[in-house]
Amino acid sequence: MSKTQQADGSIHEDQLLNFLVNSFDEEVALTLGENAELDAEDIYEVLVGACADGTSVSTLCERSEDAPHKNSVLYHLRTKFDLETLEQVGNTLLQKDVLDVLPQQVEVVSDLHLRPYYGDEDNTDGLYHSQAKRGTTAFHAYATLYARVKNKRYTLAVSPSDRRRHRQQCPRRVSRYPRRP
Predict the structure, then answer these.
(1) Which of 58, 81, 104 is the last residue of a domain?
(2) Nearest-angstrom CA–CA distance, 56 and 39
(3) What is the pLDDT of residues 53-72, one digit of tens each?
(4) Quick one: where's region Disordered (predicted)?
């Protein structure tokens, strides 16, 4: 009898994390100094983990025993990443396989998402300001573009928004990404 293990037909959390971290590593060149306390993979793991948990990088680093210090991760995010390039790479990864399997005509949906910001009130540059909601008027904002097929959403693009980018500009900005080969 063969001792070869068969796949159980499901995707496990560690497999998905590994896939996403490797995808980032292939698509985003990140060079850290020789004396850096962490490597690119550490940063990608924190980013993916924060996205999966629906939390911030700071919160994930504070709660996780094996995560690097939040200040180290945030420093590298602020100094090593070009937001426009990261946006393009992320949207390319979102569309990598989905555009090939979608029907020729799909319903396209655009949303603006506001995530409350509870940080320092003097440090709200780059945030979106709106009516008070959940105790704040400052938000991290992003627009998303979806293809909707049979009541399922397929994310095609995500674009950050702030007070300098008008609400109507974000859907136009994200809509430039989907391209059929």
Answers:
(1) 81
(2) 19
(3) 878 888 889 998 889 999 99
(4) 159-181
